[in-house]
Write a structure and sequence with these properties.
Four copies of one chain form a homotetramer.
Chain A: H1 2-15, E1 21-22, H2 27-30, E2 38-43, E3 48-52, E4 58-59, H3 64-76, H4 80-83, H5 97-101, H6 112-123, H7 128-143, E5 149-150, H8 152-161, H9 163-174, H10 182-193, E6 195-197, H11 199-205, H12 207-210, H13 225-238, H14 244-250, E7 255-257, E8 262-267, E9 271-276, E10 279-280, H15 287-300
Antiparallel strand pairs in A: 1-10, 2-3, 2-9, 4-6, 5-6, 7-8, 8-9
């Protein structure tokens, strides 16, 4: 039934006329065709269900903020929260206004400023490639796939045009909210954003969040159950920039989007889901990806605000 | 076990040294002793578990915003969303800045501006007492208790000092975002905030949200299951003003707080919970009420981001 | 020569194609034809030079803020500056954002919030008609003309639609920055804005500011020389809302504009000038009035930043 | 009389107990003793009147923004105004909020963002040392003193800690409001801020602004009379950051301050004045320098809002 459902969703999304706007401010991303749509669902039993362009690589962009947060929490524990808050921002993903009003401390790890602050912790005192390596190793291990890599052309494109992120980083540096050399932190940040993955790889990498933090293959905890639900809470309240409330209202699942058009969504105990369609809403989230998740969550009853099934 | 748990929580909260600050800007509320703590839990089976001052009346204040939203949705359907958004605000409960930046449209129905806009729909074209009556009838019916009433002294105190709410209302009126006479809308708003209830009554009034929108006694739908989960989503993302993210992070339950010190929290399918302690955090949420919910949700595993129990 | 100059300016302004937009948010003002242009110049020797619709009455609107400030300074002295600052606002005339960021204290007496705070001092403890009477008496005395009056229809129109000003007043009241009943203060404010004067009357009323604060007919000081130059400084830095810098850059004279299309400008020691043309720039200042003052100040060398003539 | 006056002012300022805070965010500036006070006045007849530490060099910091503007106007004419506005900002000198609200275009050339945008025009397409050279040549020529130079230690200190300026520059670059490599523009900017001059040199460099734009020694126009009065207008409305209104209110002279404690003030047709005292007000302007100018302008009747003397 799930296979039929996602095949049906993928078929409709493939021909949907209104597909949103592909991100234009990173030249490499602007080249991607808006025609793509892919979906992959890994269910609690470990089965994989895919449809559309589920095995095509795309730039995960801000979806990487989830993995960077996990890496920073593993390495630095609760210290992470000295650098970054846990509140929705009420403003655009790249806004700098709140940073000034709030003394350089970003509101949450899933807006650009917050992710840069988290990345700075990972990059701390090392060469850029070490920080990039740490995040990449985590993602590969979570997905069980060593072929996952950074798309160098995208990383270069981001660095060449990432003035707004450089502004955020320098601004936080002026408040001491990031510690390392701005250039190093930005290099790690731009590279983590440029990680390329398919829906299938991404859905696999999200499995531990469906399983209360535990890796389904090794059985080892990636994060504690408490951290897993806290990360999920952050994804729900802050995962879609200034459309997070709307996503919670319509879909009701913890999820994180990226301007490459990917979204990773988690139905706790049920599924890890990745969708991809490059066209974005005005708030910077995949238009068709969001619609697909809305249909899927409704059809499956996967919504954290639904009562659990009576046993 | 639940009885022991909440008795234990209530005992510890009764003697907690750091109790927050009782709201001072409404003179009548400032008179309430910070020593109070009450808790009431109605579980899915209809049983009631109470501890502490669970049968003492307090001013529900912004918790009433949930009931006003339900009343407006019943009467006006999706038209409500023309007046108010579904996004966290990223600012204080009584902030006016975003209203100017966003052309007078409040971000969500759970900040003051949004609740006033919702109330304006209810008040529309009627005398104040009719709007107040509509909300009061709903609350009484949900709680199954016709003794619930407005505290006139508090309503008067709010009206006499509610300049900031008057500013919000006039400001929205200037954008046509509220339609009725400002005075009427404010009268209804101040009275709904002044509804007095005990924890037990409040937990009863929230039962329909635990049961996917259905009244547990009559079996009739108050709102559709879809609306019930959407209201829950709004409570999770916006229910604690500019500490909503933190509450989701620590407690993980849809909930709405009021500056009277009450919080209504919903564990879908499991429980409707009301806590009350008048001392507030700097963001305006009950300090001990929040702590109590944190302990309760952790002990019971009531957190929407936990995987549901395997059946 | 001055007569020829202003006749020439008036002739060109009468037929200028681009005339700006008549203020629409006050219904009575929206009825005024954009075809009008008037100018009146009283020179230091007391002579009056007029052209165009110089004897037609118009609504002086925010030009009245200068007279309200003078009245408040006469009655309350330096206490005025506890209520209002002396800084340009960097935002629109009716913006409320800065009020929130700066605890309810308006930046200067020439934006709406500041003028309302000043008016509240005048209104203090009295019936509205007494406050209105005080301002009207001052204006009549300065202009030497007892026929000057409030346009009742405009005052009524402002009160009926002045929700944004009501928001500002209530907001300041919530911070204690205005003390009296909001309704009284607003009544006085709406009536002072609705004072109707011709260019000739307005230029006469401004004579004391050209003469270092002294009334040219009675010889008595209206304000001290120090206050006269301070008021002029405020007019230069804050007199044209968020286009004050531009006006200083292009015209170089202390001046105050109103949304009725009038502007009062002072060339210290040389002239008191009033212009009127109802069409406004996007910032709310008379488009042709500003152009006329630019031409006049350039032709006459009346610019406070010019070196004074070598004697 | 002027000599006695400034000697008296200097004597009182030398022992004033409340001296403000020396700028701490640039380490090299933090080393300067707050005990200094110097003043130099060049009158229209070319005579120089000095008192206190008038021949000691200090870092002119933002006073250099006037010279950078002149250099850019000479080289690029009215094109400068495509990059920067002419309005007071209503916010702190290093605020970034308005840049976001206004699409990256700074409000005026005398706040940091605006000066960086102006500097970018000067730096355009060249090596940093060429841009620095151009500004330095202008300053030397205006002061008639080839010994004036950049303080390398200060320039280095600014560059090493100038993260907030780097944020502003990168932010504007993201909007295309600056065109050159951010690093080059910042290098030129940091070096121009680090120009070291004495009060005497600075007062000399300001002479052309007293003389309607004409160099008093060569007789050649540096800028046209119209530009001279426009620059003066900008100095009056924007020269003291978010205390510009207050300075106009109290002193009434076009002036530009710097966080090194220097202020250049112009009395058109009368005098070019430089004061220096390193302690700053909370808004970042020399505390005693401002007081000295207040006393001087009052005693001499040098206030652009005074009526000119009757001839």
């Amino acid at each position: 039934m799930l296979d039929t459902l996602i095949a049906d969703i993928a078929a409709r999304m493939a021909t949907a006329p209104d597909r949103g706007q592909v991100a234009r401010y990173i030249p490499e991303l602007a080249k991607v065709s808006p025609a793509h749509f892919g979906i992959a669902v890994v269910t609690a039993d470990g089965r994989e269900h895919v449809a559309g362009d589920a095995d095509l690589s795309f730039s995960i962009q801000s979806v990487s903020k989830v993995f960077a947060l996990v890496e920073a929490l593993q390495a630095h524990g609760e210290r992470v929260w000295q650098r970054v808050g846990r509140e929705p921002s009420g403003s655009a993903f790249n806004s700098i206004i709140q940073l000034e009003l709030e003394q350089g401390r970003p509101r949450n790890p899933f807006i650009n400023a917050g992710a840069i602050a988290v990345t700075d912790l990972i990059a701390e005192g090392n060469e850029p490639r070490e920080g990039i390596g740490a995040i990449l190793r985590l993602v590969r291990s979570l997905a069980g796939d060593d072929t996952i890599n950074v798309d160098g052309a995208v990383a270069y494109s981001e660095a060449a045009t990432g003035f707004r992120n450089a502004a955020l980083a320098n601004y936080m540096r002026s408040f001491g909210m990031i510690a390392g050399p701005v250039e190093t932190t930005l290099q790690v940040y731009f590279h983590q954003c440029a990680i390329a993955m398919s829906c299938r790889q991404l859905a696999r990498a999200g499995r531990f969040l469906m399983h209360a933090g535990r890796c389904p293959t090794s059985g080892k905890p990636i994060v504690s159950p408490e951290r897993a639900r806290r990360i999920a809470a952050l994804m729900l309240t802050c995962g879609h920039y200034d459309a997070s409330g709307e996503f919670a209202f319509e879909v009701g699942l913890p999820a994180k989007s990226g301007v490459g058009g990917g979204i990773l969504a988690i139905a706790p105990g049920r599924a890890s889901i990745a969708v991809w369609s490059p066209g974005l809403s005005p708030q910077g989230n995949s238009l068709l990806g969001t619609k697909a998740l809305e249909e899927l969550s409704r059809a499956m009853g996967w919504n954290v605000f639904n009562p659990p099934p009576a046993c």
